[in-house]
Design a protein that fits this description.
The protein has 435 residues and is mostly helical. Helix content is 50%, strand content 5%. It has helices at residues 70-76, 79-88, 94-105, 112-119, 127-141, 151-177, 190-199, 210-222, 230-239, 245-256, 264-275, 281-289, 308-324, 329-342, 344-348, 355-365, 373-394, 428-432, and strands spanning 5-10, 15-20, 54-57, 62-65, 68-69. The protein has a three-stranded antiparallel beta sheet. A hairpin with a 4-residue loop joins β1 (5-10) and β2. α5 runs antiparallel to α6 and α5 (127-141) packs antiparallel against α10. 41% of the residues are buried. The model has no long low-confidence stretch (mean pLDDT 95). The structure holds acetyl coenzyme *A. Acetyl coenzyme *A is lined by residues 260-261, 264, 288, 294-301, 349, 351, 354-356.
Length: 435
């Protein structure tokens, strides 16, 4: 059978070309022979890499890491095992897993100077800002990380980053509360140790509640990777210049900080508090439908069916509430979901709850403070960022990321000396947007 092709005819010139189709994609560079580029703001229909890390079928609501369904991993795996799977491509054997746990745990401490660096932030600094700055600063502590083509260096920075992210995250929180920092306790699980660094007070040994520890571990699994999302794309873009992984993770975390991405769960909880009671849900739906605001935690670029992670989180919420007592926000969220899923506006746009719709409610019930929500996301996503970064480094087809633009500005103009200029150039509102 002939190799599949796409025939393109340029009706301006009559020129016809056959473009090979590989893995359901044509190469945008093949369009160059027609002298045209593909224009795709927000990269909605552009694949910029080949990846083996995670697979999403947005129509059927499927998410797999390295081929394993998210439901099976949430049910049977642990975050550290899933991180191994994501980073190394296979589930570990017992001895490999033991070694991996040891390797991550030996990197949970941070340099004391980094602690002083965190102390330099204002008392009310947002922990996501602290995390972004601190992880970027790690680059100066490990200058050898610039050897990105060296396998051993990549392995070392991966262990360090997965090991240190919870420590930096917890220190950021303790700083904002004026509490002394709690050093890692490596007898505990990855998630248990994080809870200890967050919440331990004067007790000699912090013992996390097993249900809450497991719930957070599952949430970490669900957030570990999600193919070419905004922050991962940022990680790859920065990585493509061969910058070291610490500054690349700082950039990825910065992309995650926005309300359309990793801060959506924080926004969901603000929104639910603002609604306050079930009877006020219809008024919010009205505002959303009139375009005044978005329903946070709803909608997804890829999922046009229920986000499979949201289903798992909804189940976990009930387990958490048995320990913490019910978070009353859940009733408002369920009512919001019920009304939205019956409403033509949401149905026709295929807007369903995403991972962030319920995660914030669980975090809040666990007494994890709101500004920490995107930080929790960043801890979990570090394994995905590192796996995708390594894939990029090894991909011989990749070069420095440098997209084209469609220039729509002025043609060449003569420079006019200052004293001869009159009004009449571009309006400020055209450049900065409406006042
Ligand atoms: N509430 C109301 N309307 C929405 C929402 C929403 N949450 N999301 C999308 N829409 C509407 C848009 O207004 C648009 O309607 P129109 O066709 O009448 O103009 C249509 O649905 C398509 O929306 P887009 O913005 O084109 O969708 P896109 O794929 O670019 O955006 C995104 C995806 C950013 C997630 C969006 O759905 C959104 O802003 N959701 C709220 C924020 C959120 O929950 N983010 C977390 C995403 S998951 C994650 O990052 C972990």
């Amino acid at each position: 059978m002939a190799a599949p092709t796409l025939t393109v005819i340029d009706n301006r010139t009559g020129k016809k070309v056959d473009l090979p189709i590989e893995n359901g994609a044509i190469r945008a560079t093949d369009l160059a022979q027609l002298g045209i580029v593909s224009y795709d703001p927000a990269l909605i229909n552009t694949a910029a890499c080949k990846s083996k890390v995670s697979y999403i079928d947005g129509e059927r609501g499927i998410l797999r890491y390295r081929g394993y369904p998210i439901e099976a991993l949430a049910e049977q795996s642990s975050f550290l095992e899933t991180a191994y799977l994501i980073v190394k491509g296979e589930l570990p054997t017992t001895s490999h897993f033991r070694m991996w746990q040891h390797n991550i745990k030996t990197h949970t401490l941070i340099h004391e100077n980094l602690k002083h660096f965190i102390e330099g932030f204002r008392y009310d600094a947002h922990p996501m800002g602290i995390l972004i700055g601190t992880v970027g600063a790690l680059s100066t502590f490990y200058p050898e990380a610039k050897h990105v083509l060296d396998l051993e260096s990549r392995r070392m920075q991966t262990r360090r980053l997965i090991g240190k992210m919870p420590t930096m995250a917890a220190f950021a929180y303790r700083h904002s509360r004026g509490l002394p920092y709690v050093y890692p306790d490596n007898d505990l699980s990855y998630t248990g140790n994080f809870l200890s660094m967050m919440f331990r007070m004067t007790e000699l040994k912090y013992r996390p509640d097993p249900v809450l520890e497991n719930a957070l571990d599952v949430l970490f699994i669900l957030h570990a990777d999600h193919e070419q999302n905004c922050s991962t794309t940022t990680m790859r873009t920065i990585g493509s210049s061969l910058a070291d992984p610490y500054v690349a993770v700082a950039g990825a975390a910065a992309a995650l900080a926005g309300p359309r991405h990793g801060s959506a769960n924080e926004e969901v909880v603000h929104m639910l508090h603002e609604i306050g009671s079930k009877d006020r849900v219809p008024a919010l739906i009205k505002q959303v439908k009139s375009g005044e605001r978005r329903l946070m935690g709803f909608g997804h670029r890829v999922y046009k069916n229920y986000d499979p992670r949201a289903k798992i989180i909804k189940r976990i919420a009930h387990q958490v509430f048995e320990v913490t007592g019910k978070n009353p926000l859940i009733d408002i969220a369920l009512e919001l979901e019920r009304i939205a899923l019956e409403d033509e506006y949401f149905v026709s746009r295929r807007l369903y709850p995403n991972v962030d719709f319920y995660s914030g409610i669980i975090y809040e019930a666990m007494s994890l403070p709101l500004p920490m929500f995107p930080v929790l996301f960043a801890i979990a996503r570090t394994s995905g960022w590192m796996a995708q970064w390594a894939e990029l480094i090894l991909d011989e087809e990749q070069k420095i990321t440098r997209p084209k633009q469609v220039y729509v500005g002025y043609d060449e103009r003569n420079y006019v000396p200052l004293d001869q200029r009159r009004d009449g150039g571009a309006l400020e509102t055209e450049v900065y947007g409406p006042l």
